[in-house]
Design a protein that fits this description.
Blueprint (H helix, E strand, L loop, with lengths): L10 E5 L4 H13 L3 E6 L14 E5 L5 H7 L4 E4 L7 H5 L1 H22 L2 E5 L33 H15 L4 E7 L2 E2 L17 H11 L4 E3 L5 E3 L1 E2 H13 L11 E5 L5 E3 H16 L10 E3 L1 H5 L8 E2 L4 H7 L7 H16 L6
Parallel strand pairs: 1-2, 1-4, 2-3, 4-5, 5-6, 6-11, 7-10, 8-13, 9-14
Antiparallel strand pairs: 9-12
The protein binds uridine-5'-diphosphate-glucuronic acid (UGA).
């Protein structure tokens, strides 16, 4: 397999092409290569500007259909981003979450093993489990994972993702690479509840929504959990470093799981709330003291029974640097300002100003 960026005979299949990461990857593939794209998703509202692009073919379908899986596996490079990945759904929809994060990826991996495609599978930083506040760096090939009890259905997602990783790694003949994202942020992340989605989105979209609506930011269990937020542009650059590193054949690219995160961007969620309030005040030209103070809520009351949390998610970034020469570049403030400014511009109806 030779995946040169200037080869216009190559088609990459992007599953979950219409989602947050997929939409950024699609743009980058079209801008940085001469490849074609076979994009699969259940909706394409983020891709209005690409729907008539002659280098793209879109299929509105999901991986529950075997015929769709077979078709995707005909392409030499398959990037699978499709997943239910909002924590608010892990409790009430555990079986659906497991189907989306284990059954469907396993079927796709089986088909790719047969066809010889290189599968780049998106897993999650959440496979490191219920990390403690003082957990050290999470390292791909040495850190053990601890999960909560079966009644803590928060872990339905992480255990399904972990099983999918193990299934992929166990399939004879599959060419695979696993990506573990650490809290990617950027334009087009998630949704605004009541506008283009229902329920509770991940923290960035949830805080952005509250700021726009003039409501207090909710700090789950005091906002003590820590995350390393990573710009989606770094995520796309990582993928290009991966694609470039020997077209999936170089040692160190295949049969590897990679953390993709920015270890310099660590904050507690309470600190994130403070930063987002300040950025919002700046974007809006108002004094931060005019915004409502954050409110502490309990995780179980907010998300429902079975909620649990990882208290620290600090990636080791050494492996991506060593094998691919990749290091995330976007500082936290830059990533947050871009994301929040986009959110304000995209959703603001003026009602909250
Ligand atoms: C998520 C998802 O499980 C995965 O989709 C994904 O792989 C991973 O993050 C990621 O984005 O890479 P989590 O980090 O817990 O997990 O997602 P958020 O919902 O964004 O929550 C982050 C933290 O903020 C948690 O401690 C949560 O309790 C807190 N939070 C969230 C609040 O304090 N207030 C809110 O309004 C929302």
């Amino acid at each position: 397999m030779n995946l040169r960026f200037d080869d216009n005979s190559i088609t990459v299949a992007i599953v979950g092409c219409g989602g947050f990461i997929g939409s950024h990857l699609l743009d980058a593939v079209l801008e940085r290569t001469r490849w074609r794209v076979f994009g699969v998703d259940l909706d394409f509202y983020r891709l209005q500007h690409r729907l008539n692009d002659e280098r793209c073919e879109f299929l509105c379908a999901d991986l529950a259909e075997p015929v769709v899986v077979e078709r995707i596996a005909q392409f030499p490079l398959v990037v699978n981003l499709a997943a239910i990945c909002t924590p608010s759904r892990y409790m009430g929809e555990a079986c659906e979450v497991i189907r989306s994060n284990y059954d469907h990826p396993a079927a796709l991996a089986t088909a790719c093993a047969k066809s010889g495609s290189w599968l780049v599978h998106f897993s999650t930083s959440e496979i490191y489990g219920r990390t403690a506040p003082d957990s050290g760096e999470l390292e791909e090939d040495s850190t053990p994972a601890v999960f909560g009890p079966v009644t803590a259905s928060r872990w339905s997602y992480a255990t399904a993702k972990l099983l999918a990783e193990r299934f992929i790694a166990g399939l004879p003949d599959l060419k695979w690479t696993v990506v573990r994202p650490f809290n990617f942020v950027g334009p087009y992340m998630d949704f605004m509840p009541g506008v283009d989605g229902e329920g509770i989105p991940r923290v960035l979209a949830n805080f952005s929504t509250a700021l726009l609506r003039g409501e207090p930011l909710k700090l789950v269990n005091g906002g003590k959990a820590k995350r390393c937020f990573t710009s989606v542009h770094d995520a796309v650059d990582f993928l290009f470093a991966l694609f470039a590193a020997g077209s999936g054949t170089a040692p160190g690219v295949l049969s590897q799981a990679f953390n993709v995160g920015n270890s310099e961007n660590e904050v507690t969620i309470a600190e994130l709330a403070g930063k987002m309030r300040s950025i919002f005040a700046k974007v809006r030209g108002v004094d931060v003291s005019t915004l409502p103070e954050p409110q502490v809520v309990s995780g179980v009351e907010y998300y429902g029974a079975g909620y649990d949390d990882s208290m620290r998610r600090m990636p080791s970034v050494a492996k991506a640097q060593r094998l691919l020469g990749f290091k995330a570049r976007f500082p936290l403030e830059v990533a947050l300002e871009e994301s929040l400014s986009w959110f304000v511009k995209h959703y603001d109806t003026g009602a909250s100003s």
